[in-house]
Amino acid sequence: MKRSRFTEEQIIGILKEHQAGLGAKELCRKHGVSDATFYKWRAKFGGMEVSDAKKLKALEAENAKLKKLLAEQMMDVSTLKEMLGKNF
């Protein structure tokens, strides 16, 4: 996954500037991001506080870890089924 130039705190700060009344195009020009990036941020982080964003990041990391564990377990089960099928 590509690493962002901006932290969650910075992104939320930029979005708060937008809520305070600055235009999206002005903010994008000021911070050097594209319009598409700004609107993706707004869709993902809109209305969040910094603590909420940190919780979201932690949950996403935990979810990825659990998905990896599930995939490994499914591989183990399929391998064991293959081994049992060949023995009988």
Automatic annotation (TrEMBL):
Where, by residue number, does the polypeptide cross the bilayer? Answer: none
GO biological-process terms attached to the record: DNA transposition
Which InterPro entries is this protein grouped with?
Homeodomain-like_sf (IPR009057), Transposase_8 (IPR002514), Transposase_8_domain (IPR052546)
**One of the Pfam families matching this protein, by short name:** HTH_Tnp_1
Q: Which GO terms describe its molecular function?
A: DNA binding; transposase activity
PANTHER family from the UniProt entry: LOW CALCIUM RESPONSE LOCUS PROTEIN S, TRANSPOSASE
This chain's protein is named: Putative transposase
Upper taxonomic classification of the species?
Answer: Bacteria, Pseudomonadati, Pseudomonadota, Alphaproteobacteria, Rhodobacterales
